[in-house]
Amino acid sequence: MEIIHVSAECYPVAKAGGLGDVVGALPKYQNELGHIAKVVMPMYKTKFLMNNAWDVVHKGRTNIGDYWFDYTIIKEQTNKLGFDLYLVDINGLLDREKVYGYDDDTERFTAFQVSVVDWISVWVHKPDVIHVHDHHTGLIPFIIKHCYKYQHLHSIPTVLTIHNAQYQGTMGWDKSYLLPPWDSWKWGLLDWKGAINPLASGIKCAWKVTTVSKSYLEEMRQSSNGLEDLLEYERGKCSGILNGIDVDVWDPATDSYFEDHFTVKTAAEGKAKSKKKLCDTFDLDVNKPLIVFIGRLVGEKGADILPAAISDSFYYIGRKMNFLILGSGFPEVEAQLNSLQRLAQKDYSVYIGYNEALSHLMYAGADFLLMPSRVEPCGLNQMYAMRYGTVPMVRRTGGLRDTVIDYGEKNGYGIVYNWAAVGDITQGIWRAVDLYNDSERMAEIRERMMLLDFSWQSSVLQYISLYEEMRHKEPVTESLPE
Ligand code: ADP
Ligand code: GLC
Question: What number is the average pLDDT over the span 109-129?
């Protein structure tokens, strides 16, 4: 089958979070099974763009409203990522340094989606599936079904994967002019609660909808930033497929971001060397357990309660552990984490920013990884941590619930707590210190975690059978909840 993934992110080209990791890996493993999976994404100004060679494969001209623009599709020449990678260049709109965060993101991602469809509309054949990811590509199923210019594509099956329902790309109806002329009887397929909602539109118009863990699928029906009723209504076409991790990139025996490689057998010594490097660099005490946090400093990740949880742990448990935080996000959280540095007694440090190499070293050198997420559709960090012999300390939610078993349970290996609350996190930290002091148990748990299989193997097969179900079928006519 020929599968076209359309996404705002793809590692190593451009990544802001787990979406990039998933789109950088899933197509590669689909190709290994003999399919032809391709990725189309915006051409940002990235190192990857500068350091690689490209062929121009198509030049086109289209518009969002009365803004006409030229777009160019370029393809990476060597297929070095294990799949065909296409970038959409739109001068002035997409060629920026960051992926998101601009005032005109609505125009940028609408222009991106229109260009992708415009390009596919001139192909001599049709792909078997268009697989779109998150709200930045959520309008594509609507565009190919209901925009007059592209209706000859309406029979191409579409899949929407929701990586995070918190973000929906909502725009006012005043922006409806950005879309190519469409059948106005179908306005209800764009609308959710009085605005154009690209994620909701994707849920309504895509043939199948997936999300990245079974638990998150259930949770979304209870809490998904206003989409609960819609997801309940569309439950028949929704399924949860757990993400895998790219075991070629995330392998402690070969990881290209640090030197002291290790396997299950040599984990104790290997991890100790990376831990020492971290402790030397960040002025921490190598003899205490090292608890790290890696991620976006936002409410979803529970980052706002980290400062209180860290100071309470020092106060109630004593200075028996180190904390090292890597992340960026809300300025207030960054400021609070920075100010904790003043109280550090060789047991706390923070790095504000994004640093891929440091993150790998932290997965390798840490003893524990803290994830007090309020919402976690899948979460990749905990899986990376486990493969690197680092015990995850997670809140029981979404993909964390589906991948981590508390070490108190049979064959367990992690620390699991119920609430993203200071008390629960602090109690988890107390359990971590306790576990660390039982070196035999710690070694046993480490081995158990490192042997778990979080590869893409089974999830890729689930995606393929989902695509198979849609093959040679007629598109379904959408209906709307009352
Ligand atoms: P999300 O996509 O919600 O941010 P995930 O757990 O799916 O969460 O994926 C996060 C990815 O981003 C992981 O690969 C993690 O290592 C990486 N990451 C997050 N913040 C940083 C950072 N500040 N520096 C380096 N890597 C980061
Ligand atoms: C999102 C989610 C995260 C998930 C990632 C990849 O960013 O927040 O939980 O792992 O997408 O699917």
Answer: 98
